[in-house]
Amino acid sequence: MAWDAEVAVVGAGAAGLTLAHRLATLPSPPRVLLVGAPDGPLRPPERTWCWWEEPGGEFDGALAARWSRVRVHGTDGRPVDRELAPFVYKMLRSRDFERWVADRLDAAPSVRRVEAVVDEVRDDAGGAVVRGVCSEGRPVVWRARWAFDSRPAAALPPARTTLLQHFRGWFVRCDAPALDPAVAELMDFRTPQPDRGLSFGYVLPLSDREALVEYTEFSPAVLDDAAYDAALRHYTGAVLRLPPFRVLSTEQGVIPMTDGRFPRRAGAAVFRIGTAGGATRPATGYTFAAVRRQSHAVAAAFAAGRHPVPPAPYPARALAMDAAMLRALATGRVAGADVFTGLFRHVPAERLLRFLDGRTGPAEDVMVGVRTPVAPMLRTVAELPWLRRRTGIGHAPLRRER
């Protein structure tokens, strides 16, 4: 059969763009068809991705900011300042990332970029078929040997516990210097805490006057716009005590936090990547680093002539620990703010960041685990095998793959 491409990548967000770019850099790159959504409701608004890694990463030239120090404030107001060496916390805005990748894909003869609203991706005659409607309203059909689908799932998978990480952020410019651009406020728990779950502020300073300031909750349901704005006014005024400022732009979104199992395979030749393929860490919402690991592994499989099955983004042990943490938060057995503050206060930063990335060994996991409330966590672990997985809830389009 004559394929339109060897690889069809559906979705031009973080996962799709990262995979298309990685495949294009192979010594013998496959022919790639990258299908992105046209302008309209299916194209996500501008968003921000954050992750940590060593200095000198491939996207460093496109970063909006980076920090070698982070701060966490406990509910008691005491700050915990940590140096991240050997890591750096990095912030990348989607428009800069898309421009960076587009420049490279436009120079790659192996990549063809098209726009369409995709209705179906499925196995077909030894490969995969992608069906949709182009921006002019005409039906389109493409066939490829392999297809990688990064579109968000319509609903979450059955799970024992499901929370949502939901947030609104303001990009602000203060009338006077008021921020420390050398330190990112990773979690500020001086916000009113819900009975179950947690809330925190998040400050990523771009200069001594400009920052992304967010209000975030881990809870079962989202808030309305008025509630988010009220929380941000309280956080910027009563907590941060910022001088008068202007709101330059707003970001808002939802990240699923669930112990549901996201299948990475949707057919013999169709795979799911990104959040749809389980790249979101259940207990934190971080996604971007796992997306990159997936794309590197898929590209390596192509280079070696193997079937390009995306690997599990996190080891089973990490997912089991996340399932226990989510359940403990959802039941109110642990105070989430105290748990995360304690981890940053007592666990070495380098080990904690590797743990949050799912890159620690069993012994290190135990050393991190004993810094959580042991009795309620053990009770939660004991009950998990007896809980039934229930049908997941729908979720809004995702804003940030951290």
Main β-sheet, spatial strand arrangement: 6-5-12-13-14-11-15
Which whole number gives the mean pLDDT?
93
In CATH's first tier, which class of the domain at 5-47 and 93-157 and 261-304 applies? Alpha Beta
For the terminal residues, how far apart are their CA atoms? Answer: 40 Å
* CATH topology (fold) name of the domain at 5-47 and 93-157 and 261-304: FAD/NAD(P)-binding domain
The helix/strand order is EHEEEEEEHEEEEEEEHEEHHHHHH
Q: What does this protein look like?
A:
This protein is of the alpha/beta class. Among the domains are: 152 residues, 3-Layer(bba) Sandwich (FAD/NAD(P)-binding domain), CATH 3.50.50; 71 residues. Helix content is 27%, strand content 31%. It is built from nine helices and 16 strands. The chain has a seven-stranded mixed β-sheet with strand order 6-5-12-13-14-11-15, with helices on both faces. It has a five-stranded mixed barrel with strand order 1-2-8-9-10. Strand 9 and strand 10 form a beta hairpin. Helix 1 runs parallel beside helix 2 and helix 1 packs parallel to helix 4. It is globular, with a radius of gyration of 21 Å. The two termini are 40 Å apart.
Architecture blueprint of SSEs:
Layout: E1 5-10, H1 14-24, E2 32-36, E3 48-53, E4 65-67, E5 69-73, E6 79-83, E7 88-93, H2 94-106, E8 111-124, E9 127-134, E10 139-149, E11 162-174, E12 183-188, E13 198-205, E14 210-219, H3 225-239, E15 245-258, E16 270-272, H4 288-304, H5 316-331, H6 336-346, H7 349-356, H8 362-369, H9 374-383
Parallel strand pairs: 1-2, 1-10, 2-8, 5-12, 10-16
Antiparallel strand pairs: 3-7, 4-7, 5-6, 8-9, 9-10, 11-14, 11-15, 12-13, 13-14
Helix pairs in contact: 1-2, 1-4, 5-9
